[in-house]
Write a structure and sequence with these properties.
Helix content: 40-55%
Number of strands: 16
CATH class of the largest domain: Alpha Beta
Number of helices: 21
Strand order of the largest sheet: 2-1-3-4-5
Number of domains: 4
Distance between the termini: 64 Å
CATH architecture of the largest domain: 3-Layer(aba) Sandwich
CATH topology of the largest domain: Rossmann fold
Shape: globular
Structural class: alpha/beta
Largest sheet: 5 strands, mixed
């Protein structure tokens, strides 16, 4: 009697809603009924409102059920779910669910499909082909493929990836570093975590491709301390890849754990932290590609940028560039969060509008109330009212509309949100997370809170609004990094699009 294979996510999102308990209950119920099952713990497909999601493999593929609670398990067995039988929780094949069906999964193609720590599973689903091709065509051809793909940094700045690769490749040094910035700290973002927990070998392959192209023999993955599951999964995956000889003795990767500071998401503060110092922003120049980790040429990319490289090397740069619009090429793993009915990860080519993402994909607000505001790009991103949601989700369109794409996070608020409080939070966040090195960020954020408080209580509101505008200009022009430099975006957008919220007496208590 062969075992029925059952797939249940093991990533943090699924575990947070008792996926472990559901897996245990299924195992116990099968044993009690004399049925043989093999439970495979995967990454999440990204349909987070349906977690814990349970998939049962059958002759016609996998049949999904969800969200499954421990109390549902007995009923599922009685209904015959091991044979794909109908049930109130039946969803059919995941790939036929509209949220999933509309996606173009380049980076997340294996997440939710494979056992994250199985080298055999990874290879069986196309893994290592990009690295093998890279070693065949040579370093310069690899950089050329990245250039032809149009890949830009997915960490927020959108800088063309191949320019960094070329700079480190051309640098003369006995040692070069490839550093993965996995210090994912923006509100409403979780793609890095999902990929590290659901397909860690993809990131490893991307780093190995990059290292080969630029001539590096050392890699570092800097993971935020708040991601224990990602840390454990990445550590186990690196150990397996090393033992299997994937790196070939020419490259190795070290996992480093962050210290809980948001500022370490800035690349130079991250390098300071890896070197054992307090995470503070470095003045530039020199740039990390010239003098980075321990003074050596260093290529710093975030998780999604490096994870795009295997697809590009396997399928070719033009295949990646064929998706998207304008200078925004390829796909973006878009993270839908906040007050939204269908929260999750949606990978698609650039070009969908915010309205399509919030309403058609996300289903509108979870509360059922009208959309009040949508913040794009993390805590430093601009707020958009419902009337401006027809802007396209790409680097240039969002910038032209006064916002930024950031790490691809979209946080939805309904019309009960207090935008004055949200604006104040931006300054408060900056004040708390500032590394303290530059005055505009360190002092400006605190003065910003004080000035907003004066406006809210009717203390010379027009004079203080003008003062606040000047203050934000100083922070934008004088801050060493984006933390102070972009804090004006959420504040100014809130004041521009929701002016009534900043009239004296309108702040909720």
């Amino acid at each position: 009697m062969s075992a029925t294979r059952i797939y249940i996510a093991r990533d943090s999102a699924a575990r947070s809603v008792n996926a472990d308990a559901v897996a245990k209950a299924i195992e116990q119920q099968a044993r009690a009924r004399g049925q043989i099952v093999e439970i495979v713990r995967t990454g999440s497909h990204g349909l987070l409102w349906l977690e814990p999601l349970v998939e049962v493999a059958g002759p016609q593929g996998r049949t999904a059920y969800g969200p499954v609670r421990v109390g549902d398990v007995v009923g599922l067995f009685e209904a015959g779910f091991l044979h794909g039988a109908p049930h109130d929780l039946s969803l059919g094949p995941v790939e036929e669910i509209d949220f999933f069906k509309r996606q173009h999964r380049f980076t997340f193609a294996r997440v939710g499909v494979v056992d994250p720590l199985s080298l055999d599973d990874y290879r069986a689903h196309g893994g290592w082909q990009g690295l093998e091709r890279a070693r065949t065509i040579g370093p310069q051809a690899v950089v050329d493929e990245i250039a032809n793909s149009g890949l830009r940094g997915r960490g927020g700045a959108g800088f063309p990836a191949h320019i960094k690769w070329s700079a480190v490749q051309e640098a003369q040094s006995e040692r070069k570093y490839v550093v993965c910035n996995a210090d994912e700290g923006d509100s409403g973002t979780f793609a890095d975590r999902m990929l590290m927990e659901g397909d860690p070998f993809l990131l490893i392959e991307g780093m190995a491709i990059c290292a080969y192209a630029v001539g590096s023999d050392r890699g570092v993955v800097y993971i935020r301390s708040e991601y224990p599951d990602a840390i454990a999964t990445m550590g186990a995956a690196v150990k397996s890849a090393r033992a299997a000889g994937i790196f070939g003795g020419a490259f190795d990767i070290e996992i480093r754990i962050g210290a809980g500071a948001y500022i370490c998401g800035e690349e130079t503060a991250l390098l300071e932290s890896i070197e054992g110092r307090r995470g503070q922003v470095r003045a530039k120049p020199p740039l990390p590609v010239q003098s980075g980790l321990f003074g050596r040429p260093t290529l710093v990319h975030n998780v999604l940028t490096l994870a795009a490289a295997p697809f590009i090397l396997t399928q070719g740069g033009p295949a990646y560039a064929a998706q998207g619009m304008g200078r925004s090429r390829g796909t973006m793993p878009i993270q839908l969060a906040g007050n939204i009915k269908r929260a999750g990860l949606f990978e698609a080519p650039f070009g969908l509008t915010l309205r399509e993402l919030v309403y058609d994909v996300g289903g509108g607000t979870a509360s059922g109330r009208p959309v009040g505001a949508v913040q794009v790009g993390g805590p430093l991103g601009a707020y958009f009212p419902d009337s401006l949601l027809d802007v396209a989700f790409d680097y240039e369109s969002l910038a032209q509309a006064g916002g930024l794409l950031g790490h691809g996070g979209i946080v939805v608020f309904d019309d009960s949100v207090d935008m004055s409080a949200q604006a104040r939070f931006a300054f408060s966040f900056c004040a708390i997370e500032s590394c303290g090195k530059c005055t505009p960020c360190r002092i400006g954020s605190t003065r910003g809170m004080e000035t907003l408080d004066k406006i809210a209580t009717g203390v010379e509101p027009e004079k203080n609004k003008a003062l606040l505008k000047d203050l934000m200009n100083v922070m934008a022009d004088g801050s060493l990094c984006a933390l102070g430099g972009l804090t004006h975006l959420p504040v100014s957008s809130a004041m521009k699009h929701f002016p009534q919220e900043f009239e004296p007496g309108n702040r909720s208590t």
